[in-house]
Specification:
The chain is about 40% helix and about 20% strand. It is of the alpha/beta class and about 270 residues long. The protein has a single domain, classed as LigB-like (Protocatechuate 4,5-dioxygenase, Chain B), CATH 3.40.830. About 50% of the residues are buried. The model has no long low-confidence stretch (mean pLDDT about 95).
Length: about 270
Amino acid sequence: MNRKPAVAGQFYPLDPKTLQREVSSFLEPRGEKRRAVGVVSPHAGYVYSGKIAGMVFSRVVIPPSVVILGPNHRGVGGDVAVAARGSWEMPSGLVPIDEDLARTILESSKSAVDDERAHALEHSLEVQVPFIQAFRPDFRLVPIALGRLSLPECLAFGRDLAAAISQNAGDVLIVASSDMTHYEPAREAEKKDRMVIDRMLNLDPDGVYETVRDNRITMCGVIPVTIMLAAAKELGASTAELAGYMTSGDTSGDYGSVVGYAGVIVR
């Protein structure tokens, strides 16, 4: 079954040539690209968060398979919903599901379910795809939409995901899709976001989850990021770097109520 794009023409251009130009405008000049275990990339409209996403994907080698973890904004479907078969139709071309890796994840985790409903209208995973296609048009995708999970459930699925990836013959990149603080003054948003970014850079999944929870930070992708960090540590990651940070105010000029965007690379 092929999934149709849900937010083309809204979050990013529908026309393939226009989309290619816009994505290319956010990419960094050619430089050293290194292998990464995971990344954090934002999922707002490209006019706001495209620059940060471009920084992230310009600096990593895109392997044949990419697992994208995104928050389930609509709450439809399972809490760990894997789209396990078929393809995603995108303006820049068809992206096949890595069905073997998806099946291994489903077999490795008691919490993961084969559920396409969670993906039909969800934007957080879809908006990552054109940036990945810009560097590797032939990649295969495993999309996982995530609902409400406790910290122990996040850590458990992180271990399960790492185990499944370890069984996979090739390299896999884990993309955690997340925006940061929502609709607060820029100074407050940046203060709160820095608390979470520090925990990311320390490869501290527990700290990310607890910092967001305890400080009531409106970071929509805390669960994807927690899981990515837990899996990355299991897979041997030892360092993390901040690719960039900005807020919607840097685009709109309105710093009274912003959304934060951070890009992090885990190696």
